[in-house]
Design goal:
The protein is 73% helix and 3% strand. The strands form two sheets. A two-stranded antiparallel ribbon has the order 1-2. The protein has a two-stranded antiparallel sheet with strand order 3-4. The longest helix is centred in the middle third of the chain and has 60 residues. The protein is elongated. The N and C termini lie far apart (137 Å).
Length: 559
């Protein structure tokens, strides 16, 4: 077993050594990877523009204006082609078969053939460009540079057709003859050319006048106003007119190029085209905003989502600010901007009016302020509210809401007060001797009474008391009367209870003080009548606020 383990260890070591050797062999070709990894077209495009491949530093340094162009010289073409020829020879010397550790054979022939083919393609890109240059430039005046290019191609065994060599020999003389003929023809047609130039200049002047006239018509007829009817029809009409004028301008430019006549820039027409595009963009925004706001108009009052509408309006406002600055002087822009801003302001007012403190009286106040009447119910829509022109009454709306909130607090206090006293009743206990119902002392009732009086006093001092002034005053009077009556009642009841046992319960006293006893009998009858009558009205407020009760108690007390 030990021998097998040693053999296995040795075998694995040899395999690992071969793997390492093969990896090193493969890595030896990594420096050729750019030949089949780079974009050949992009490499050659940059070479033709700049004479070399741009580095990241160059691109960053000229980020604003772009790297200046510097077309390659013939010498740079030579250097590129030579470099590929050198690489080709280098690759060609690679051994096709390699053996590692006497048992691992690597056949590099397919890779070598493919790599040589790629190198040839790189070289051919530069050679083909030079050949095309010679073929397509043979009629120019660059005969000497062309001859130099042909000589360079010969060094790389790139032969041109025989007729090209023949043309390079014959064409210089023919070219001179053509130039002489051109001069003669130019002299011959000079009068005709001068006449045509005169006509062309007149056309240029007439077109210049026409573009200024069109500018005035454009300013009057184009949809610059926000209240324009059928703006897109007007835009289409002006587009057709501008297109016709642009066609005429192009024709003038072409003729001017033939006769070497200076032509005005016709900035007015170009400016009208720019304004037309800006108008189209502006009216697209107006249409979008209008459609969205019109859709909101039908939203029922209870369904109005101010937050979402506000976000959408703010998005519109940002997009409007991003429009070209030139449109800001136009009425259509001002109208759109005002429409969105007014809606934002109105939505703020709507949000205020959604406060739960708002009551019908507040809507009536708002209608009175705005001068617009409508019925506020479940069918009320955003359109009804916008008719109030809320954007013009932002402060008034805020004032109404600011008043409604504390009024709601007052309303709550008064409601609780009503609820409290509607159920508050007196408690009675029978007199031990006569069973007359006597009022029981109730500390809780007295405490509630005192607290409510303090609350009413606080309300009466509020600057928002106007609507509830009468109701609060009534409750103040009721509680004040209740307070004095209860206090007086207990005094009278206490006095009666003490004297009853003396003048009614004792015969001796009655005999000794007959006049006082007689007077007390009248008091006794009146008090008992009040006591029985009070028991019939258990509610504290009703019982204490009976007309004349306080006076009756005072009369009894004074007797």
């Amino acid at each position: 077993m030990a021998d097998l383990a040693d053999m296995r260890h040795e075998l694995m070591g040899r395999v690992q050594a071969v793997v390492t050797a093969c990896c090193d062999y493969r890595s030896a070709f990594d420096h050729y990877s750019y030949l089949y990894g780079e974009d050949r077209r992009e490499f050659f495009r940059q070479f033709l523009l700049y004479g070399h491949i741009l580095t990241a530093a160059e691109i960053e340094a000229h980020a604003e204006n772009g790297v200046p162009e510097s077309p390659p010289t013939l010498q740079q073409f030579r250097e590129q082609i030579d470099s590929y020829e050198k690489i080709y020879e280098e690759v060609n010397r690679i051994e096709p078969i390699s053996i590692f550790q006497s048992w691992m054979k690597v056949d590099a022939r397919p890779f070598k053939a493919s790599l040589l083919n790629v190198i040839k393609w790189w070289s051919l890109v530069f050679k083909q460009h030079l050949m095309d240059h010679v073929m397509h430039s043979v009629t120019d005046a660059m005969f000497e540079p062309l001859k130099q290019t042909v000589e360079l191609l010969k060094t790389y065994e790139q032969e041109l057709p025989e007729e090209v060599y023949k043309q390079l020999e014959e064409l210089p003389e023919k070219w001179n003859n053509i130039k002489k003929l051109a001069i003669a023809v130019k002299q011959h047609v000079a009068p005709l050319q001068a006449n045509e130039m005169t006509v062309l200049r007149k056309s240029c002047a007439a077109f210049d006048v026409e573009q200024h006239r069109f500018r005035e018509r454009f300013r009057k007829e184009a949809p610059f106003r926000f209240d324009t009817k059928k703006p897109y029809q007007l835009l289409d009409t002006k587009h057709i007119e501008i297109k016709q004028m642009e066609s005429a301008m192009t024709s003038i430019y072409e003729s001017a190029g033939l006769f070497e006549v200076m032509v005005p820039d016709y900035k007015q027409l170009k400016q009208r085209r720019k304004e037309l595009c800006l108008l189209k963009e502006l009216w697209d925004m107006i249409s979008l905003v209008g459609a969205c706001l019109d859709d909101w108009q039908t939203t029922k009052w209870v369904d109005i989502n101010v937050e979402n509408m506000d976000l959408e309006c703010k998005k519109f406002a940002r997009e409007i600010r991003n429009l070209d600055k030139e449109v800001r002087a136009w009425d259509a822009f001002s109208g759109l901007d005002s429409k969105v801003k007014n809606m934002l302001t109105a939505l703020k007012a709507v949000a205020e009016l959604q406060n739960p403190a708002i009551r019908e009286r507040h809507w009536n106040q708002l209608m009175q302020v705005t001068g617009v009447r409508f019925v506020m119910d479940s069918d009320t829509t955003l359109a009804d509210l916008l008719k109030l022109n809320l954007h013009n009454f932002e402060d008034e709306v805020r004032g109404i809401v600011d008043k409604a909130v504390p009024e709601m607090s007052m309303e709550k206090v008064l409601k609780e007060l009503k609820m409290t006293w509607s159920t508050m009743e007196f408690q009675y206990e029978p007199h031990p001797r006569t069973n007359i119902p006597l009022l029981k002392s109730d500390e809780e009732l007295i405490e509630i009474l005192e607290d409510n009086q303090v609350q009413l006093q606080n309300l009466i001092t509020s600057k928002y008391i106007a609507f509830f002034l009468e109701e609060v005053s009534i409750w103040q009077r009721k509680l004040s009367t209740m307070d004095s009556v209860i206090s007086l009642w207990f005094e009278v009841q206490h006095t009666w209870s003490r004297l009853e046992s003396i003048f009614i319960g004792s015969e001796d006293i009655r005999a000794q003080l007959p006049e006082d006893s007689k007077r007390f009998e009248g008091i006794d009858v009146d008090f008992k009548e009040l006591a029985y009558e009070a028991q019939k009205t258990p509610n504290v407020v009703e019982a204490t606020n009976k007309p004349g009760l306080s006076q009756q108690l005072e009369d009894i007390q004074s007797r």
